[in-house]
Each structure stands twice: as C-alpha cells, then as structure tokens.
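Fill in residues.
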C-alpha cells in the first residue's frame, strides 16, 4: 500500500499577495527542516498579475491598469483577484509518482480535474499547455518553485472573476480571452465548494490526508 502523509490545511481567506509570499517562504524553510508537516494554503488575493521568468524572457507586457509583480515560480503571467481560488502546497515531494516536476504538475492538475468532476464539471488538460481547461477555455493555472523538492506557489482556479479582467490579458503563448472563469462557461460554484471538493479528493490524488479529517 502506498504511503499516505498528513497535511496541515490553512484557510487564509482574502490575503495580500506579499503577505502570502512571505508566509510561503517561511513555511518552505520550516518544511525543509521537518519542523512542520506538508502544509496546504487556500486563499484569494486582491487583483495582481504575477510574472514568472518565462514572461520576463518573452518580454510580456502587462497593461498599465493592472498591478504586477515578479515571481520565481515556473510559467509566464498569472492573474490573481476576486473570484479565484489560490492553492499553495508547501509539500515535500518524495512519495511514489513524484519523481520530477512534470509528474508533480500532472498530479496537481489531475487533483483539480477529479475535484471539479465531483461537482459536475468536466475538465481536462491541454497537451500543449499546463493548466486546467473546460470546453476549450483555460480556467486554472499551475506554477511551482522548488527548494530541495519542497514546493512554493501552486495553482489557481477561476470560478467567478470580474468580467473582462483575466480575459484581457495575453501571454504564455495564449491569446487574450483564452483564460476565463467557470461562471463564463456556464458553471456557478463558490470558492467554498471548490475547497471542499479538493479536500475530499486529497487521499486519492495526492497520497495525503487532511490532519483534521
């Protein structure tokens, strides 16, 4: 039987991005030193566009009316804001099936897909691009940073974002309008519903168990 590991879950609510970034860095160091177990953060952020190394390399331009900041995770640009669930796994990735970044990213994508299926939403991956897709639209992004196989950053799921904000951005090889929100493709769900679906699906997808369950 595959090993299962306990996860400490924190619901941070609406959190400023710099505050979440500081917390992630502190927790990553604590996890490296085995002072804490694997830790999962759920939150949302006020509007901000984070720009990874790929976006800076490709000289992606974020419009002036969007606040933005550089980050060190994989990937290009990612919009954050109201109506988006942000999930940060501060995990030590050394269990079965976690041999490389591609496998870990795929695990996170499949966790989202199987969790959305629980609430009646059929999602999938795209063979060319990372992330989670529904009906040809991208509704979730994945981007991680690692230190000795302990991760920071994570993934997003857009469920009820302000109309036009995420759609107006382009970058990461995607045209403006490709990334959108679940409510725009016909699914009305809440952030709490998403969290509960993800928590119920941790053991099957991540070989981990919520410490409170």
């Amino acid at each position: 039987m595959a090993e299962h590991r306990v996860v400490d879950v924190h619901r941070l609510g609406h959190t400023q991005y710099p505050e979440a970034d500081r917390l992630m860095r502190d927790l990553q160091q604590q996890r490296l030193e085995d002072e804490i177990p694997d830790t999962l953060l759920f939150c949302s952020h006020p509007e901000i566009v984070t720009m990874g190394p790929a976006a800076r390399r490709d000289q992606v331009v974020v419009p002036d009316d969007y606040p933005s900041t550089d980050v060190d995770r994989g990937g290009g640009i990612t919009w954050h804001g109201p109506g988006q669930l942000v999930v940060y796994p501060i995990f030590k990735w050394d269990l079965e099936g976690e041999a490389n970044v591609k496998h870990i990213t795929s695990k996170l994508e499949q966790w989202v897909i199987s969790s959305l299926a629980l609430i009646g939403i059929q999602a999938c991956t795209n063979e060319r691009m990372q992330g989670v897709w529904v009906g040809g639209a991208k509704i979730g992004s994945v981007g991680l940073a690692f230190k000795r196989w302990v991760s920071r950053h994570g993934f997003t799921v857009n469920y009820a974002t302000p109309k036009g904000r995420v759609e107006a951005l382009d970058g990461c090889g995607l045209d403006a309008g490709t990334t959108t929100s679940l409510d725009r493709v016909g699914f009305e769900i809440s952030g709490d519903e998403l969290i509960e679906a993800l928590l119920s699906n941790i053991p099957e997808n991540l070989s981990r168990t919520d410490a409170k369950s």
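Strands lie at 5-14, 38-44, 48-51, 68-70, 77-80, 84-90, 132-134, 137-147, 150-158, 208-210.
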